[in-house]
Amino acid sequence: MDATKKPLPLVFGNNEPIPTEVSNKPISELDPWERKVRFIGAIQADDMVTVKAILNENYSNGRFQPEESYTPSEQISAICMAIEKGNLEMVQLMIDHGCSVNHYTSGFSPLHYAATYGQPEIIKLLLKEGADLNALSCHGNNALQLAAQTKSLEAVQLLIDAGSNIEKANANGQTPLAIACINNRLETVEFLLRLGADVNTTDNRGNTPLLHSIDQCLTINHQLVKILLDAGANPDHMNDNGDLALVTAIRRASETNLDGQYAIKELIDHNCALDKVEVGFLKQNAIHVAISRSQDRIIEMLIRAGCDLDIMGIEGYTPLERLVMADNYNMVNLLLNAGAKPELSKKAIEKLSRFRGEERYPLQLLIADWRGRVHSLKHLCRLKFRRYMGRQCGNVIRNHLFMPASPEILTLQLFNLLSKKAAVV
């Protein structure tokens, strides 16, 4: 060690410093406890010279085995400590001195540690030395399932090349693909899908990788959602709790974070059912959840995609009635323009009266005015066109109306498109 550098503090157990007299004693004069303390400190400091000297001393005298657990608080063996540090040379040294590559400490083998920490070179070494590829940890995970949690695609590839089964599920019923989705490991997900991993596999609670990708991370990764949907993920699968991907995405989306909205767009573009009702405790559907969370952008996305504008919620109100109660003028106007029935039920009017008294609410006046209005042929045609095109209507608007062109050209393009549709029908 460089004399100008201050040596790293050696610790044992609960980060208690190793006494100076222990760290300075010759190895041959240390008692068994002092030797273990010195050994742990040397591993933590990547001090190969001291580790090798202690191993040589004890290997010749048989004082203790290198796979013993050395930290009372964590019960971790020497080789696993070296794996945590990512010290390949030290791991090899342990093996050369008789350390077992399949010895468990605290329910984990050395290979489990290497997979958990995403250490491909150490994984390669352990497999070469005979590590059990299919051994399970105390939590029911094998090495591949542990590696799928990490950023190391190389570790995943090594374990699969060694013969690990990509469809093997852990104690929770989660395959490596599901685990990679839970941990937002995009590269690993793509790799497993290329190998043919089942994109619609379910765990013990009925969750698919798609549901995991939407419900697990701090935010929704819309790229991951798209990859799974493009690979054939079922957007309408319902888990054992009755949760749906679309409704779950709306619950987790934010008006300020666009990832959730992009994920919802992907689900809509992959033809998810817009009006399917969850069978869980709340029994809600997409538009009612969006209204309850004041997600105006998502409400508009659902309307443009062709959702049922008059579908009843669990409380017995239509989307229009709920938006009126929420004073959401813009969305009420949008809903009416999209073709919602301009009606308020007796139940809704009574609820409004309890809050507003006998005075008619401005939005009630708007609805009454809309109901009595004679609408233009243009508006009626637009409604008919939207109902006919369904969720394709948004694509038509993007591809044919949002482009620089004269009104005459736009009208002609739209007319030609409608003519082709009519010919098919």
From TrEMBL:
InterPro entries: Ankyrin_rpt, Ankyrin_rpt-contain_sf, SOCS_box
GO cellular component: host cell presynaptic membrane; other organism cell membrane
Subcellular locations according to the entry: Target cell membrane
Record's keyword terms, sorted: ANK repeat, Exocytosis, Membrane, Neurotoxin, Presynaptic neurotoxin, Repeat, Target cell membrane, Target membrane, Toxin
ANK repeat spans: 106-138, 139-171, 172-204, 315-347
Domain SOCS box: start-end pairs: 374-404
Entry-linked Pfam families: Ank_2, SOCS_box
Matches recorded under PROSITE patterns: ANK_REP_REGION, ANK_REPEAT
GO biological processes: exocytosis
Signal peptide, first to last residue: none
Record-given protein name: SOCS box domain-containing protein
